[in-house]
Write a structure and sequence with these properties.
This protein is mainly α and 479 residues long. The protein is built from 21 helices and no strands.
Length: 479
């Protein structure tokens, strides 16, 4: 007959085995939580315009001071050319620092048209204007674009002009203004590093807005719809997209294609497929028709209509090597999605089998025990009492810090907690009658591990996170 110490060791060992399900669920869920959810990065957020420190102004020296201006023995603030008359002594009081926002607007044409700037001041002003182009305030971006484009031709910066044109396209939703800046770069700075890229963008935008800018208003409306459509009411998006796609202007195919893509992102796959077919039928020779075919293949994959997806992919042209690469990639994506769907079904079967097995074990243990076992079965095991608060905190952090992964974290952690409850409750009931056998304990461990792994696969596949997790494991998290 075993002694008290042996019995205690068996109880502790069994408790550790029963904790595996919950601990595994916590570990998998923690692996999904991004580093940013654990420690928020310090400093300005990514993508926001960081404040630009004012560059130190060059001190006047006897060689550079105006005629009659005495040289200072102590450091003095430099007087600007428009405020220091010739022969006037420099002020002893230091100049006030210019706020970063003001630096983005003081480079107006009237400020720089007739005066040369010191190199350090010119560099600081250029940096401030480029930073202003990345701001979230559209008014600040517009002021920076005006300051950059208003510079005299002999002092214009092609790189800054190109950045201003990109800001007009991407942030101000003004393709007409962007076209004018691109053409300015190509015409006035043909040897600049960005001249070829500017000419390419100008050609594309000229085809969109028309030879004389007659479609500039429609192009701007389309740009605004593309930029803000996902946050607008769906009915309004459909109305505006339908109007743009039916209008007689060069951007109609692009508007129709974007509307089909919008419906696909919204999960309205049947409507998206009809829109893709309309683009192909109305503009069969356009680049948008080829992109619509690819979009239709993607919509069929999303709908798990593998035969239709393969038939659409086979219709793509394959005369050129680039076209063959696109077609082969789509066919490979169809095969990969089909395997992923089979794995999803198998994961559901595994999760249901694990849950059913543990539930059957609990019912069997209750049936073999005394009558009071039924009421005792409702009490959670101590490992569930320990893990439940941890799971609650983890889920709350996920929903607060990163809503994209929160449903997957909740599914995995909660499912693991339920499996741990069933396993622990069954083994506790068995222990009231006799010592659980090794085979039963091993079966519980296997059921918990398989159940948690299946729930993880289901949650990651359902929320589209499996590929992101694989990339993170392969290449590590982004710094």
């Amino acid at each position: 007959m075993p002694g008290a110490s042996d019995r205690g060791r068996r109880v502790r060992c069994s408790a550790r085995f029963r904790t595996i399900a919950g601990a595994t669920a916590i570990a998998v869920a923690c692996a999904l939580t991004p580093p940013g959810a654990r420690a928020a990065p310090s400093g300005p957020a990514a993508g926001s315009a960081a404040p630009v420190a004012a560059a130190p102004r060059a001190e006047m020296t006897p060689d550079t001071a105006p005629s009659g201006a005495p040289a200072a023995a102590a450091p003095r603030a430099e007087m600007t050319p428009d405020t220091a008359p010739s022969g006037a002594p420099a002020a002893a009081a230091p100049r006030a620092e210019t706020p970063p926002d003001a630096a983005a607007t003081r480079a107006a044409p009237s400020d720089t048209a007739g005066h040369d700037l010191a190199p350090s001041e010119a560099r600081a002003r250029r940096a401030a204007l480029l930073d202003a182009l990345g701001a979230s305030d559209t008014a600040q971006i517009a002021r920076a674009v005006t300051a950059i484009t208003g510079a005299p031709r002999d002092r214009a910066d092609p790189d800054a002009l190109f950045a201003a044109a990109r800001a007009c396209e991407d942030k101000l939703d003004d393709p007409g203004r962007a076209l004018a800046i691109y053409e300015q770069i190509a015409g006035e700075h043909p040897s600049a590093r960005v001249a070829a890229a500017a000419q390419s963008r100008a050609t594309a935008l000229r085809a969109l807005v028309g030879p004389h800018g007659e479609s500039a208003a429609l192009a701007r409306e389309l740009a605004q719809l593309i930029a803000h459509g996902d946050r607008a009411p769906p009915d309004d998006v459909l109305r505006r997209g339908q109007s743009l796609s039916q209008a007689a202007w060069p951007g109609a195919p692009r508007a129709a294609l974007w509307l089909a893509d919008y419906l696909r992102r919204a999960g309205r796959l049947a409507e998206a497929d009809a829109r893709y077919a309309a683009v192909i039928a109305r503009w069969p020779a356009s680049p948008e028709a080829r992109e619509a075919t690819r979009g239709a293949v993607g919509a069929a994959i999303d709908a798990h209509d593998w035969s239709r997806a393969a038939a659409l992919a086979a219709q793509l042209p394959s005369a050129e090597p680039a076209d063959r690469v696109v077609r082969d990639d789509l066919l490979a994506a169809i095969a990969h999605a089909r395997r992923r769907a089979r794995g999803y079904t198998a994961a559901w079967l595994a999760a249901v089998a694990a849950l059913a097995g543990l539930l059957a074990s609990l019912i069997h243990a209750i049936g073999r025990g005394p009558r009071s076992t039924w009421r005792a079965a409702l009490r959670p095991p101590f490992e569930v009492v320990y893990l439940a608060p941890v799971v609650g905190v983890l889920i709350a952090v996920a929903f607060t810090a990163h809503r994209l992964i929160a449903p997957a974290v909740a599914t995995i952690a909660t499912g693991g907690l339920v499996l741990s409850y069933l396993s622990g409750a069954a083994l506790e009931r068995v222990r009231l009658v006799r010592r659980p056998g090794r085979l039963r304990v091993a079966g519980h461990i296997l059921a918990c591990l398989v159940g948690v792994a299946a729930l993880a696969y289901i949650a990651l596949t359902r929320d589209g996170l499996l590929d992101a997790l694989i990339e993170t494991v392969r290449f590590g998290p982004e710094g």
